[in-house]
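Sample entry follows:

_____
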Amino acid sequence: MINYPPDFPAAACAVIEHALADAEDEFIAASAGAGPVRSGSLSGDVTYVGMWDRSDRAAVSFVVDVFGTIVATSCAAARADPWPANQLRATTTNLLTQLTELTYRQKHSKGVGGFGPITLDDFTTVVHRELRALAVWSELQNTIRELSKRDTAITSAARLAATTPAAVRAHPTHKAADRNACTSIDDQQRPTLGRKLDAHRRECGWSIAQLAAKLEMEESTVKKHLNDHARPRPQNLRKYVDVFNEKLAPTTPLKVSDLRD
């Protein structure tokens, strides 16, 4: 059982618990030989060859899959609230640590079948290697950097206000500068097309890779759309609307016009 932070959104907890249930089914199938198992870091690392059986590999997949949902829901909550960058970093680190330790205790083979003993450090190392090779890890780091920039901008503005004499703050030129600073911060949070698309993706609980697969587009192309580095063509924008509506099934369906900035 994962212990969530007191201020963690209840809706996000529900999404993660659902992901845990889905991953449990996949773990059972994979460890029994009926499903695919990740092998990226394991197959290429002689340190672990001969020590990891199928259930150990399935346990790594279990952690990586659930952590993808943790990242999606945590980043969405951090943007919506918004959280300081350090809160997002601490929250995801805490949840990953809990998830890794629980999975190690409950799911790894413990040397059954002649395999050597696997320590928690061994298991954690491989989990982290797997995660760092995936888009979900880049997504988390990019969101932390984005929040950090906003934190810095807000802190700088507050520090400037606290250290500027009242007479100077009252001067029209200084008031104009204050307005410009606020506008700059607001621009960072302006609901552009990419940010709207990304917000709906997070609401669906999908990683960027999962969204790209549903759209039948290259992941690199979707990233450009979400980061406002490129605008989707009209037919591709229609695809975004269709996949979001299929997942969210809102009372009032999303329209293309809702996404335009």
Observations:
- The longest helix spans residues 135-163.
- The two ends are 42 Å apart (CA to CA).
- Confidence is low (pLDDT under 50) at residues 34-50, 111-115, 181-188.
